[in-house]
Task: structure prediction
Amino acid sequence: MWQALRERHHASGLEVVTVALDVDPAEARPFIEAAHPQHPSVIDSSHVTDELFGFVNVPNGVWIDEQGMIVRPSEPAHPGRNEFTESFRSVDLDTLPPDVADILREARKIKSDPDEYAPMIADWVERGAQSRYALSADEVVRRSAPRGVDEATAAAEFEMGEWLHTQGDHASAIPHWREAHRRFPDNWTYKRQAWNFEDPVRQGHTDAYDSSWYEDIKKLGAENYYPPVVP
Amino acid sequence: MILDELAVDAGAFKRRSGWEIKPEGACKGDVCVPLPDSARRADGRLDVPVLAERLGMPLVSDDPHGVWALGPETAGGGRVLTTAEAPELELPDADGNPFKLSSLLGQKVLLVAWASW
Result:
């Protein structure tokens, strides 16, 4: 999905790095192979980038300038209209199982403007530090998310679960992931990854967790799933 | 970061957390958090409980497996970013080849998260 944007701007000095927040790299591989990315495409199974850059959902993006300074902290990052987003909008819900249709109905209420983010990037590529979207160092730090004991502990709990799962002990991972969810409910990367292991189609309610994608989005309000991008 | 003992090499700590151990303490960008002498062990490695306490990093244990997970800092401003200076990021691609974010210095970088789930 990022290829087209990268092609438009690469000659003007932009590189894209895609980070797959997948505990199991084999899950990400078919998507990467199908995309044939020309840009670096890496796997972050421990969600290190959640800790270092503040990713809490996908797609989330961070801008870094030529000197290695972050000029926009983590925020929702939609690459623009594409086949996937358009088909998602047009599928006939009556043709789907009712619970899947319910999920999709909520997903369609999610607020994201596909025409907003790509022009911001184009402006930054053209104007650099003069772009109104390139923020000062102080503003970048100020806009980065607060991190207290709960959020930091959730990161450690998530990583512990990832380590146990990778060791082949999935059952021992679950209590750690439950604790990560309890402490940092706004981090959807912890929740969706864990739900997906139990129910990859619906991320539905299972014995493993007290939550599911559908229940949590109903509670939050789909319109709040992605916070608005502040120019 | 996952640890099987409560001691860590300063290089490994910096690679994972972004905090560099300097004479003035643990530093990220312009922010330095002073460390007591007890932060350095006799074997030259860092004492993890002391680091965790000074940097406000939670230490989660899993006793049956004898491992700890050290979380990110809450000290240094209480936000995800202590500084706008991008931390080094080292991650493998799908074939296991290493990638370093610093290899792209001199270009603008859009770092984007996605997932298969």
About this structure: The radius of gyration of chain A is 18 Å. Chain A touches chain B through 89 residues (CB under 8 Å). The longest strand of chain A covers residues 14-20.
